[in-house]
Amino acid sequence: MKHVRVWSAAALVTGSLAASPSGASAAPPVIAFTSPTAIEEGREVTLEVTVTDPEGAPVTWSWDTDGPDGVFGDHPNAASFTVPAAETDGPGNLRIGVRATDGTETTTVYRTITVANVAPEITSFPLTTGSVRHEYRYELRTSDPAGANDPITYALTARPPGMEVVDGVVTWTPTIDQRGRAFDVTVRAADGDGATDTQSWTIEIARNTAPSVPSLSSPIERARIAGDEPTTLTVQNATDPDGDPLVYFFRLSRESQFDPARVIGSGEVAEQEGETTSWTTSEPLDPGLWYWQAWVSDGIVETSPRFGSFIVGDTEYELNALPDAGTPDAGSDWTSLLDAGPSNDAPRGGCAVDAGATRGSSAAWLAGVLALGLVAFRRARRSAASALVMAALTALAVGCTDGEQMTGGDGGAVVGDDSDFDTISDADEGADEGVDTDEDSNPDFRDPDSDGDTIPDSAEAGDEDRATPPVDSDADGTPDYRDLDADDNGIPDGFETRGDTDLDGIADHADLDDDGDLVRDVLELMGVALPPADTDGDVLANYHDPDCDDDHILDGDEWNADTDQDGLLDFEDHDTDNDGIPDAVEAGDADIFSAPRDSDDDGTADFRDTDSDNDGLSDSLERESGSDPTRDDSDGDGVSDLIEVGAGTDPNDGSVSPRTRGDFVFVVPFEEAPAPARDTLRFRTTLQLVDVYFLFDISGSMSGELEALAGAVSTISTDLTCTSFGRACRADGDCDGGQACSVEGVCIEDPAFSSCVASAWTGAGIYEQELENLLSVQDDPARTAAALNVGTFGGTEQLFRAAWGVADPAGAPGVESGCAVPALGRLGCPAFRENAQRILVIFTDEISSGSETAAQAGAALRYANITTIGVWSGTPGAAARDSLVQLARASNSFSSTGQPLVFEGMDGAVVPRVISAINEVVEGVPLRVTITSADEPGDAGDALQFIDHVEVNVANPDCTAIRPTEDTDANGHDDAFPSLLPGTPVCWDVVVRQNDTVEPATVPLVFRARLTVHGDGSPLDSRIVYFLVPPVIPGPEVPI
């Protein structure tokens, strides 16, 4: 079986079922087909043929099965032929011919079968969940009846960043910044023939859950380990609720502060099988006390560290000595560190430097005090002078002897108002009761450091006025000079030193907020004082760092919330609202003490606000689209970003917006009043699509007219058609000045100034007794000119019968030949475009013969909405001319002055008459102008649900005041102009219905409707109207 070629619709205009006899002396064979005239692609179709001879002569026949090439010989005398399903691919046509002969006469008949394209269908279903760093993969499956004839291609029309589709497989690996978010995806499958199917779904990316903090396994609690081999640190494996692979980090330091310049780090250590993970140093460690910490990461967040310590080698370590570097290690006993008093059998009465100190001469004692000052200097990292001054003050205030009480200074018998010169009265220090807070046998009123925290009472008094009670910073009932933790932050005063981190005049040991970040130290320490947390790893502990996460926002402005619910509190989260924009950017400036930026002044700072500018678009969406999330109108063109995104214009380009394109946007929030409630749309009414069919009688006297028109039809068509600039457009705003966007979506010269139409098609036919369609209307004037190259001869001209056949070949009484196969969107024998202004130009110099009447033909022409132009080529004023006049009247074809559209022109004069006549129809024949609303495909749904009604506007100063108007649908609102000259601009108002049906989503929902103005059924102009449902943007968790 030979392959059957599928021919495009443009190749079918000469298709016919009429027989073409080769001679006239005998009756030729008769061929009759039985088959459908239209099928869907991918279906086999069988054509059956019956061949007979009117005279009973034997006949033979054969088939032409490979297209209309006129080569027969296939399947001799076969009664049927089947085209297999694999060879029916639309859109197009199958044209199968049979040629029969009785030995004398030959008949050839072709049967045309329209093959409709069938859209592909996506049959697979996608996954709707994903997780960070795990590949999302979706293999698409699509069915198409045409099979291999329609190879399917795929495109993602909506997708998250990083997603792609290749060879029908959608792949994407979500990144860390995409965790906990939902992404809309739309994939389009196309068959290459203009048909598509789409599938949309939403992928939710799981939020990350942080792993648990690993527990230290060994060494712990200052265990002693050998010093001659590398050290192995071991932790119990952490657990991750998400099943993410974990890596561990280990650090070693001789100082509990873990100065980055003096630490030994492991780098990433992959979790090991079993219950523990270990890391071993490359070399043995130096003898002495070591601190170590370990933490874990799932690749997204890191846990806080665990801390431990151990001793390498046999080094003696004084547990009650002050640590070497300031902050004690985990497990240290604060009391033992600060209250290292003398042994029970030691003489009482002085100040012991440490547990082994002995009481000696004043000089020896002073040396001990100086040593204590040096220790304080190392801990506080202050100047040596400050430490020495503190020691000297202590020495002056307290006397020590070789095991006996002092007889000088304030010790002993005399008790004054302030015996120890600490600016706290003896009465406040409990002199009468003999209060000894630190139980060092030196009563408080004589003890310059009553609580033994290494901070002199004079520094903890609060002021220098003995008459005022001593200060109690944490209001716990115990004044600072007796309180080992004056600010109640969990760190003993002796380890906080007397520095002033925030320079507020309150020493850190007494300051409830050391760093002045508006968050109490006890909250920033979170119950873990040793070592204190350091979120950003900058060696400044959180309680001494006013911006723990280095995002230029004061911790107090970020405290006590987890806005995006990602497990990270805001003060340690670099993207608090998870919008993909770092907090450091949303802070507004680098000054942490300035208020964080609040672009929309709604009381929620940008770093916590998922819609910082309150324009209805989430910050994450604006980041992806490139618009400014801090300005509701990024390009300053007066149209909000929400409307520009909804209408598909660039919110960063001030030169283009829905306003410049002539489109209209209505915002229709759910269960709220629309904005605006109505708007006025202005439309052109110049004709855009015109089909002209030239019909000639072929009497011998018409040869001059035929020749003249054949030579001029290209010029006529070119002059009638507006110049196309080839640029695709959706509205006039997409075109340059002096141009307009045609209804076919191409920029053309503006017909309002050029008296042209966007698209002019032509065709030609002839008639004598019957109508013969030489060429159906199409867009190439050269083909029309060629079709008019026919001979003329005498005969009977049945004008009314032919005109009737042009409009309604199925209903007319004649036997028309060459008529186009009926197709969707086409009308009449020459296949007029259904949406074009249809013009029939008849040339004759004879009266109409036959029994048909002008009224019958006119009714058919009116029903088909065909305007008739008569060109009389006979003797001026002849009675026969009246046939054209009758037909013009019967078809309601009148000029703007009410005269029948009949013109006179002979031979070469026919050309200017034709041009004049067509221009009269295009510019001067009133049109019935109506408007229709249609939903546009490919958006969020049916836009018509938002239109209450459309009504004409003749009162607006920018509109033309035209009467009369008409109410076509009897809804009480006029919506049409029953008689309007082409080119008159007119207006309609779109009145919007409140949205009570479509609930908002997390992204803007856009619905599009196309409003098209028609003149006598032909499109004149159109506008896209957008209806935008603003999204619901999840708001932040408001701090308590």
UniProtKB/TrEMBL annotation:
Acidic residues biased stretches: 417-442, 547-580
Protein localization: Secreted
Taxonomic superkingdom: Bacteria
Occurrences of domain Ig-like (ranges): 28-114
GO CC list: membrane
Region (Disordered): 409-503, 544-658
Gene Ontology terms for molecular function: calcium ion binding
Keyword terms, alphabetized: Calcium, Secreted, Signal
Chief site of localization: secreted
Composition bias type Basic and acidic residues, residue spans: 620-633
Signal peptide: 1-26
Name assigned to this protein: Internalin
Organism: Sandaracinus amylolyticus
Lineage of origin: Bacteria, Pseudomonadati, Myxococcota, Polyangia, Polyangiales
